[in-house]
Amino acid sequence: MKYLDEYRDGDIAAKLVERIHKVRTRPWVIMEVCGGQTHSIVKNGIDHLLPKGVELVHGPGCPVCVTPLEMIDKAHAIARRPEVIFCSFGDMLRVPGSDGDLFSIRSRGGDVRVVYSPIDCLKIARANPEKQVVFFAIGFETTAPANAMLAWQARRMELKNISLLVSHVLVPPAIEAVLSSAQNRVQGFLGPGHVCAVVGYTEYEPLAQRFHVPIVVTGFEPLDILEGVLMVIEQLEQGRAQVENQYSRVLAREGNRPAQELIAKVFEVNDRKWRGVGMIPRSGFHLRAEFRDLDAEERFSVQTIDTMESEVCIAGQILQGIKKPHDCPAFGTQCTPQHPLGATMVSAEGACAAYYTYGRHLKDADLVTLGGARG
Amino acid sequence: MTTGRMDESEQTKPGPFGECPLPIFEHPQIVLGHGSGGRLSAELIEKVFVARFRNPTLEKMDDQALLEIGGARLAFTTDSFVVTPIFFPGGDIGSLAVNGTVNDLAVGGARPLYLSAAFILEEGLAAADLSRVVDSMAAAAQNAGVQLVTGDTKVVNRGKGDQVFITTSGIGVVERETQLSADRARPGDRILLSGYIGDHGITILSQREGLEFEGALESDCASLDGLVAAMLDAAEAAGDVQGVRVMRDPTRGGVATVVNEIAGRSRAGMLLRESLIPVRDEVRGACELLGLDPLYVANEGKLVAVVAPRIADRVLAAMQAHPLGADSRVIGEVTERPAGMVLMRTGVGGTRVVDVLFGEQLPRIC
After folding, report:
1. Between A and B, how many CB-CB pairs are < 8 A?
2. CA pair distance B234, B231, nearest whole angstrom
3. Which residues of B touch A (CB under 8 A)?
4. Domain assignment present for B358
5. Same structural domain for residues B252 and B296?
6. How do residues B39-84 score in pLDDT, each as one tens digit?
7. Considering its fold, how many domains does chain A have in total?
8. Which residues, 6 or more positions from B243, have their beta carbon under 8 angstroms from its beta carbon?
9. Same domain, yes or no, for B339 and B225?
10. What is the residue range of A364's domain?
11. B31–A43: do the CB atoms touch at under 8 Å?
């Protein structure tokens, strides 16, 4: 299939792996920032192709994972209300709050709907004028333009029965938090391709300079990721620390200007709590004052909800690349996608869930076979 | 009935006071995932149903029960059909209800003979729509050579159903010396697939409200009895009808769920090759867009077979010579280890585990 097969070619992959072997002279730790990249790496077994000593650690870029538990509980409190049609991206539905998930709310009569685009909420709101339509607006910079467009259109169409529960987060402050941590092991980054397609990568240049780390903005197909890894290692071996663009077929340095303008009209930067990580200053978006009447938190007054996270869970350390999923004693035993204890097990893009789904919870004996099956 | 592999810890173990009479089903309500064909479905079937009806036939957990009555080997199966929309490109709920049950009999090595059909109709359903569904059932039954010999209808209040629900049961006769069961896969056996995967599931998805992509894609809804007969003829001609060890039609839960069931029941491993699994561009495109994996998407006219290596080529040739199997391929083989697990060599040369999903596949955010 065009635009897919070219980026999944086994022969080219083997050549890239060979070049990585040639270029690398010592061990390196590289973080892929984005959950979509983590998913692709584990799904395609890319980490198994890399030379020993090139370690990929998985970053905080899974929007469902980092949405704080109290925000999930707020969503559930709103979704339980009889006058509400609660709309969400699909992978949010199975994320457990303090009492069940959105699927269980639906089974008890709540009107919870999966939308593929935030704009679908406009249609639902017009078709159900007696109902309150609430959209769970989560995500990184990638989903911000579409979420902003929902608020913009709702205002333009004067729809009174629509609101947004906003839990937006931003990548650069998270990278800064990872690099500022005393326990940081990360030496180079695969930057988030789709985030940068929206906002560009100028914001990453000061980070690369200040912390002296290479950041290669990278795509999501197997060959994208292998090429991104190669570009990071080349920089590391040469002692360079620049922002480079592997994903140039999709994005340019400045990103998508009209999208940025729309975001700026609807959202403004604020402090955000990240699940598993904690408060990061100026790391998210909320609605600007002009759009605050579309804020579901205010419309349904659900401001104060206290929550408790599991004490066993090490999601915070995993999201910062300090530990791997199988370093956790609960991984695959107490904590599974069926009964997630924390952030990184809840979404398909979370590192723990990806490891679990693609069999990384196997015992050593089985993993030996897995390795042996390679050829 | 279908089931996924279950962890040891999920099965009931005798405690200090003997065996617990019924396993604990911890969901206070049924959720949609219980109908997904994944791990939640398996849990529902095991803990609520099998626990109460336990018997050797049921415990085989094949798509059909194989019964010996008066010296005859009969296959018996039942299936309920709920689909929105009821008419879709390539079929409708009527053809689905006939072909689904015919296929569950056929993959047990049976010649399908008789069907029953029970209809739950929602008040307000257009009579013309019902006639169209029943016409389609009649055509499908004629095509598969089965007779509908008994039935039932009920009408429920508007809003208590979704236009029409159909339950069909079927009986067939097993005339060959086949021994088909999910526990018969052996290391070295080949895994055969009869064609492109995911057509049905993506067709239905594309017809649903809110998903406005278009294409020429059609459901693969078809009766597989002719294809199965051609495969068993070839195996018989090679003198080894029992060399066709397992056949399954990968409906909800898709190919991934079916091969996991076989691996689990046979306590063998499976190694699939991603590059050999045929997926149409339309299906791949939709799956890429929505973050779905075609391996878990439903099919209604495909089969997966595990065949002894000695006769695999001949069975494959017979499949390819049949109109419903023209795109058949060997997609992998049965291995000794890791027992009960499915591995896949990915297109770029990595290896990953293909597990059973927990519930239904959810579209990813970005």
Report:
1. 146
2. 5
3. 27-33, 39, 210-211, 269, 271, 275, 281, 284-285, 288, 290-291, 335, 337-338, 341, 343, 345-353, 355, 358-359, 362-366
4. no
5. yes
6. 889 999 999 999 999 999 999 889 999 999 999 999 999 999 999 9
7. 2
8. B235, B307, B308, B310, B311, B315
9. yes
10. 315-372
11. no
